[in-house]
Amino acid sequence: MRVLMFGWEFPPHIAGGLGTACEGIVKGLAYNGVETLFVMPNASGDEDQSATTILNASDVAVQNVSSTVEEFINKVKFMYVDSNLVPYVDPDEYYAAIEKMRAEGLTQTSVGFGQKFKFSGKYGANLMEEVSRYAQVGGTIAMQHIDEFDVIHSHDWLTYLAGIAAKELTGKPLVVHVHATSYDRGDEKHIDTRVLDIETRGMMAADRVVTVSDLTRNIVVNKYGIDPAKVVTVHNAVDFSGRENIEVERGVRDKVVTFLGRITFQKGPEYFIEAAAKVLKRTKNVRFVMAGSGDMMNRAIRQVARLGISDRFHFTGFLRGAEVQKMFALSDVYIMPSVSEPFGISPLEAMRTGVPSIISYQSGAAEVLKYALKVDFWDVDALADDIYALVSYPALTEFASKQGYDEVNELKWNGATAKLKKVYESLI
Amino acid sequence: MKKSICLYFQVHQPTRLRKYRFFDIGKDSHYYDDFANRTILKRVAQKCYLPMNELLLEAITKSKGKFKLAFSISGSALEQFDRYAPEVLDSFRKLAATGKVEFLCETYYHSLASLAAPSEFAHQVEKHKAHIKEAFGVEPVTFRNTELIYSDDIARQVYDLGFKTMLTEGARHIMAWQSPDYVYTAASQPKLKLLLRNYGLSDDIAFRFSDRGWAEWPLTAEKYLGWLREADGDIVNLFMDYETFGEHQAADSGIFEFMRAFFKEALASGEFDFVTPAQAVKNIKPVDSLSVPDPISWADEERDLSAWLGNELQQDAYNKVYRLTEKLAILADPELWSDFGHLQESDHLYYMCTKFFSDGEIHKRFSPYDTPYEAFINYMNVLSDFIIRINSIYAEQQN
Predict the structure, then answer these.
(1) Half-sphere exposure of residue B35, counting CA atoms within 13 Å on the CB side?
(2) Is there a smaller number of Cβ atoms within 10 Å at the N or the C end of chain B?
(3) CA nearest B371 in A: which residue?
(4) Tell me, what CATH number does B124's domain have?
């Protein structure tokens, strides 16, 4: 079994969780005997290729225009838009990406056929144009490698057009993998219809749609109107191999309760803050940390000040790499009160560090984590109760920590990708 | 009778905080950005303090003592002079030695203690008074509160601390039809005399001098004296930040030449004399009493406290820091007291101001932070560490 896979990013250079998931998937597939050709817009050359072969779309010139490609281009009405669209990336990364692109002079993006296109592979201002270029190059790559794969697999809307192009040109079956939907990115009034349009097109054109949770599967069926018979859930996993938990010296003696992620509507930061205020009314030996940045950060800071808890509620700003591990290591309780979370890998990271987690039922992770405590995101009282219990009753904390650690170590990509392999097999 | 001109310049430098992260809490209790503080102080010394002090000394000498003025120098600024630019302190001492310069008293840490905690206020006033006496050999007799903040309640406190004169803003909403160009008394304490800033004429120099969009640009000494002549009262109080000269108004705007000409021509005309605040209240009789139930200040359009306590971030930070007053009074720990003082500097609250679309530009210009939110987060992280230290020392002393 061979798969042509379209991704947007791959470690070590990643902005969001998509790249990490893709690496886990290709490694798991390799374990299950599935070969992958992994296409990405802008490979750096330092990606780990032990489990896959990486094709860099920036190295590929678009071939002679076949009538099919032309037809296809007409069909999808390629959009040359200078939109400032940011699907996953947090604001810091976004501005950094734009600045970097400016510095590198990448504003000049017009390109004719027979030329190479230098993708940024980021989530910056020219994203829509990059997405349509990527589709053109994707079609070319599929034709060049037509004898080397059986199935096409596209990860999230950024790569759906490339997947469709490859299917149109080669006639091979297409799987689209839904890691997130427009409905998770903001409230329904502010959905970007161009993204929604590409998502719908991809799911419609696909022979199978893979979702990262049943929660996402419901959205795909109910909001996008996709036939349930072709939508399959394959829960995310996480690769902890080779990871040692770090030891950190603590500066504060109090228990630390942490929220780590983008501070946006979708992540439910205000419920965390309300719960913190309730807990602080009952006990003082606890501190709360909101790590990350996002468009609701300033509002969150005002809320904390208004509640008068700012000496016990701290903001770290955006954390990178090792700082994230350090933050987990400094935490006693981890909270993910997401309003809508397709999966949510962060509680798995926390539990792997031995930190008991409280997550909302409105997250995909809640479907697989038995030893995380669960509440409805809006149920601030329940959240406060659980936080209080975890900082006050050592027996509970130790149990949740130990069981949670064992549980997440069992959530391996090898199992998840075995299920994915079955999906491929059903298509040929 | 000649019309009096009363000049008072405010000298202050905040003790800026370093980038203090959550990860530092409980581990590292050095809070200050020594590099920024030193660099900024040295720059301002070169551009403003040293050249302007020299200019003033020359004006005093050449006028044979007819030219006079007043300074208020915060304790935080004095500490930085001592540490980074002792030559500035020397040049102020030279001015003091002429006997023509009055040094005013204020809160040592340029704080809002007058609003928050009477005991802390009294403590900082005494500390500043002692420090000024030690530095310049004269005990201050006139009081100016941080940012000219004033109210009936503060007037009472200030009088009880031994002052007979106080400076404040001639805020329009307080003055109504009355002119700031007279001496007044406090309604809550008739023995306390008030000198009120003429904000129009003060800001012509402090804010508008180099503004080429201003209809009166360029300002000349002749034109300015004409305006002073038209002022209807006994005294014109020109109060401004000392950093106006060479820092806010750059040297190439001609600010130094203007001031030199202004002093010279004012005296040469024979229509004006220069007075210090202490002399002014001896020479000039008060015309009326002023009642100020709600605090006023010299900041922003509102002339109230909204620059420091206008939003919930500022109010929370303010409440959190002043809540510590009682505990600190019990702990006889000079190091903690010093940090407590520096954390009370009103500048930290000023950086958290969110009045971005009106006076926000000015706030932003003076802030080391990109946003008021960053200012708040950083301050609260520092304060959290400080609270941990207090509590642990407190616990030790209780045992």
Answers:
(1) 3
(2) C
(3) A298
(4) 3.20.110.20
